[in-house]
Specification:
Length: 154
């Protein structure tokens, strides 16, 4: 069974505006994500409705996806929906006493679709393995963002 939500959070020792500058720059997603190697923003600045073309990698397997930004609230939240599997990836920011809590999540409010489920089952090792890989990838992405933001802030 596919989990509706996979998420993790990390505390970053920097104000929300510094974290926002990094997480809202979707062109840099390939620097953070172990699976999304490149994200091309189509059009001008990132905002609600912006479309992207993405290149993904897992071992020898490579595949393209497209997405559309569905939430864009400066210094609070950015989210994009992958067209091919209906997954929504979100970065939410919450000010804390010492900086910002960043939560990355993958949700599937509408399920993943039959084609995506078949690909996960037959090419990506099955749902459980793939979702564990996504959870590990979220933790890795957040750690990379934390390192970058704190390095830039110091």
């Amino acid at each position: 069974m596919t989990a509706e939500r996979i998420q993790d959070s990390i505390e970053v020792a920097a104000p929300p505006e510094a974290v926002w500058a990094v997480v809202s720059d979707l062109r840099r997603m390939g620097e953070w994500s172990p699976q999304c190697r490149r994200m091309y923003v189509l059009g001008g600045d990132v905002r609600r409705g912006t479309r992207t073309f993405n290149l993904n990698r897992r071992g020898w397997l490579r595949w393209p996806t497209t997405s559309r930004v569905v939430v864009f609230e400066p210094e609070r939240e950015v989210a994009f929906r992958i067209a091919q599997n209906r997954m929504i990836w979100t970065f939410a920011l919450e000010p804390t006493a010492t900086g910002t809590r960043v939560t990355e999540s993958r949700t599937m409010p509408d399920g993943s679709g039959r084609a995506s489920a078949l690909l996960v089952q037959h090419l990506l090792g099955g749902t459980e393995e793939f979702e564990q890989e996504l959870a590990d990838g979220i933790a890795s992405t957040l750690a990379r963002i934390k390192t970058e933001v704190e390095r830039a802030a110091s």
